[in-house]
Amino acid sequence: MGKTLMTETWLRNHRLLYVGATRHPFIRSIRDGNIDLSSFKTWLGQDYVFVRSFVPFVASVLSKACKGSDNSSNDVEVILGGMAALNDEIAWFKKEASKWGVQLSDIVPQKANQNYCRFLESLMSPEVEYTVAITAFWAIEAVYQESFAHCLEDGTKTPPELQETCQRWGNEGFGQYCNALRKIADRQLEKASDDVITKAEVTFLRVLEHEVDFWNISHGGT
Ligand code: HMH
Hints:
By secondary structure, the protein is mainly α. It is built from 10 helices and no strands.
């Protein structure tokens, strides 16, 4: 009989917020094929800016894994794999932007994006425990994985020109990588103090809120 893992409890207790982040109207519009391409281009440019700030955050998680993990060789390999994927992702954003005529050097980060990047910066502080940081990392990746995988399910009307974007985060390999991050988070949470567990849960909720605000940018938010 398996014990209930912490992330499982959170996903159950915060189902509505999680669904709000992973089934956002922006994602639904891709899936239903009625996405307005200017929204897509807005998302593309803003996400490029986000991913650039995400890199130093992931580097900080990697550094914490080296110091603070009981299973650091496994954790380092998983996180390093994520960093390699980000390297690839940045090249992909550049290619995709030129395909859509989006000028990346002109992108001004919108308010919600700035807030999200500032939140990532706060998590880079050495005061933030590895357990809290890896929980945030998992949640950030999992929201994209689940959102875009949803656009690839049978019977969806995702436009052919957006399939590649959805594949990037919705593919099975990315799903396995998210599961590996989740396992690390659960393992860390299992031995964490109540205080750290509470901090990690609050951080998880903040990530979901930032993700919703981020999707809102492409739907005319600021
Ligand atoms: C806003 N969240 C946002 N952008 C991303 N690229 C990811 C998560 C996944 O890497």
